[in-house]
Design goal:
Blueprint (H helix, E strand, L loop, with lengths): L8 H9 L1 H8 L9 H25 L11 H18 L4 H15 L7 E9 L10 E2 L5 E2 L1 E10 L2 E8 L7 H5 L2 H13 L5 E8 L3 E5 L3 H20 L23 H8 L13 H36 L3 E2 L4 E2 L11 H7 L13 H10 L4 H7 L22
Helix pairs in contact: 1-2, 3-4, 3-5, 4-5
């Protein structure tokens, strides 16, 4: 139906996860529900772009990037910009504001990974004055996006960096198939053909850098995949648009517009067939459906709890229902001073009182290799209770 569309990683994700979400976003262009994580991401990204321009100005004035760093005055200026952007975006939680500020400061201390900075917020495929170059795949699929940072790692290697403020880090396998990085790889090959290789990186501001790459075979397969997705986007009609309930529904920007989600939140008459009547495929689908609905109901419970808590705080009074009174209860938690306990308790009894922090031990072994062998030799591995997990099936290729 739509003819003037361009492919981005966000657009692909939206289209594949739920056709209705995609339609609300790209066709009806409905306003999104406010998202604290998005506000933080925007604030951090724009602050680091601001810092990057200061960096490039220093280079123009003769600064040597191999030994260059931000001055105290420059850091103060960048932090002031962060504060302004945080207020503009409406970050209400002071803890989130402080967390973002710490992420920016950490990156300012080690601003570039390569030899020199080549580009900031490098746009491609947009419309208007700052559109950037128009880039298409070999099949004619138009691409759109903005690369956070482009660096020359060495004279043969280009480094493409995308900032991430999320708490979780992707696995190596997830990095190898990340659509956004694959799109950036295509764009980098077009904009910077003089480099022999392209390295792709997610700058996980909370944990560090994660690097990956793409082979020519992988890129050929990815371009073919983009063509299939693009063609289906073009062919999408209003009558084909349906909501897809999944475990991510509670975090959807358009959940308040979605009648399917609202019905799932309000549904109370859950009638289930006896499991003995299900075939294997039906059993799997029913399990997936129940799991998705469970997530929706859990999120609804959190939303209602937040509203009730805020009302009780503001009014100073408990909430009265027909048969129950809702009030705020807070449990106490006591933490003992480890140094005092260690000095007071006999050495032979101390191990029975403490738990060893796995991450702390791993970090210690990394810094002190001499202790690694005996510690690993005495380690025990325990397994959790078995649980169900899912993975995508590899579909057999159709014979030509």
């Amino acid at each position: 139906m739509a003819k003037n569309i361009k492919i981005s990683a966000t657009r692909i994700s939206s289209f594949l996860s739920c056709k209705q979400k995609y339609w609300f976003s790209y066709h009806e262009k409905l306003p999104k529900v406010s998202n604290p994580a998005f506000k933080l991401g925007t604030t951090v990204h724009e602050t680091l772009e601001f810092a990057g321009h200061i960096w490039l100005d220093k280079v123009k004035k003769g600064g040597d990037e191999s030994s260059m760093s931000f001055t105290k005055a420059e850091i103060k200026k960048i932090m002031k910009e962060y504060d302004a952007l945080s207020v503009r975006e409406g970050i209400e939680d002071l803890g989130v504001h402080i967390e973002g500020k710490a992420l920016v400061k950490r990156r300012l201390a080690d601003f570039i990974s390569g030899e020199k900075l080549l580009g900031l917020e490098t746009k491609f495929g947009f419309w208007g004055k700052d559109a950037g170059p128009s880039i298409k795949t070999k099949d004619g699929v138009p691409l759109m996006g903005a690369i956070d940072k482009v660096e020359q790692y060495d004279e043969d290697t280009l480094l493409i960096i995308d900032y991430k403020t999320s708490k979780t880090a992707p696995t190596a396998d997830q990095l190898r198939v990340d659509p956004q990085l694959s799109i950036y790889n295509l764009v980098a090959k077009t904009l910077y053909p003089q480099y022999k290789r392209v390295v792709l990186a997610l700058d996980l501001l909370k944990s560090g850098m994660a690097f990956t790459y793409r082979t020519d075979e992988e890129m050929e397969e990815f371009e073919a995949y983009l063509k299939v997705v693009y063609d289906q986007m073009l062919a999408l009609k209003p009558e084909d648009v349906k909501a897809s309930l999944n475990i991510f529904c509670p975090w959807c920007d358009y959940k308040d517009y979605c009648s399917t989600y609202q019905r799932a939140c309000k549904k109370a008459d859950y009638n289930f067939l006896p499991t003995m009547h299900y075939e294997d495929e039906q059993l799997v689908e029913e399990w997936k459906s129940v799991r998705a609905t469970k997530k929706i109901l859990e999120q609804r419970d959190r939303e209602l709890s937040m509203i009730l808590t805020e009302k009780i705080k503001r009014s100073g009074e408990d909430m009265e229902g027909e048969t129950e009174t809702i009030y705020i209860r807070q449990n106490s938690r006591t933490n003992f001073d480890l140094q005092t306990v260690a000095q007071t308790v006999p050495v032979e009894d101390f191990p029975s009182l403490v738990n060893v922090n796995k991450r702390a031990v791993e970090n210690y072994m990394q810094d002190n290799p001499a202790v690694k062998e005996p510690i690993l030799a005495s380690a025990n591995t325990n397994y959790t209770t078995p649980f169900l997990a899912t993975k995508k099936k590899k579909l057999a290729k159709k014979k030509k």
